[in-house]
Specification:
Oligomer: single chain
CATH superfamily: Class I glutamine amidotransferase (GATase) domain
CATH topology: Rossmann fold
Strand order of the largest sheet: 6-3-1-7-8-12-11
Helix content: 25-40%
CATH architecture: 3-Layer(aba) Sandwich
């Protein structure tokens, strides 16, 4: 089973990429890094440059049909860049259209807001997205983890790096249900 991790070429919060990535690998699945350009992405530890990671596929070459689910790590710059990329937004939306699970942490829901998929859903995020989520028709809650069911589609959201353990466990639990 493959899981897509969608990130921009720079600005992803490294731990929000690496911790769920490792959880996916520990579950025996294959994580793939999907980005707006080929080559490498630059991760950050808050505002400081961290490691680089190789891109497996560009959004132009990726399809939701190839994956069991989608993970949207945060960082402030990462989802801000993604929401400006038409193909990245369409890629994220395609998981909702296909009824596949999506997980977003921290600022990750910005991409979902741009994709027009938060209306009627309850989610959590970094607190500064509260107004954006409300303006997009969603309901924001201040909880470590929120799993919103909408038919076959699950939306898993979490607030910040401190919530990564619960977030990663929910990703494995909910995405695993699609393999059944």
């Amino acid at each position: 089973m493959k899981v897509a991790f969608l990130v921009a070429t720079e600005g992803v919060e490294q731990i929000e990429l690496t911790e769920p990535w490792q959880a996916v690998k520990d579950a025996g699945w294959t994580p793939e890094l999907v980005s707006t350009s080929s080559g490498e992405i630059q991760a950050f530890n808050h505002l400081d440059k961290a490691d680089t990671f190789p891109v497996d596929k560009t959004v132009s070459d990726a399809s939701a049909a190839d994956y069991a689910g989608l993970v949207l790590p945060g960082g402030v710059a990462n989802p801000d860049f993604l929401r400006l990329d038409r193909k990245a937004v369409a890629f994220a939306k395609s998981f909702f259209d296909a009824g596949k699970p999506v997980a977003a942490i921290c600022h990750g829901p910005w991409t979902l807001i741009e994709a027009g998929v938060v209306r009627g859903r309850t989610l959590t995020s970094w607190p500064s997205l509260r107004t954006d989520i409300g303006n997009a028709g969603g309901t924001w809650v201040d909880e470590q983890l929120n799993v919103c069911s909408d038919g076959p589609n699950k939306l898993i959201t979490s607030r910040k790096p401190d919530d990564l353990k619960a977030f990663s466990e929910a990703v494995v639990d909910e995405f695993g249900k699609t393999a059944d």
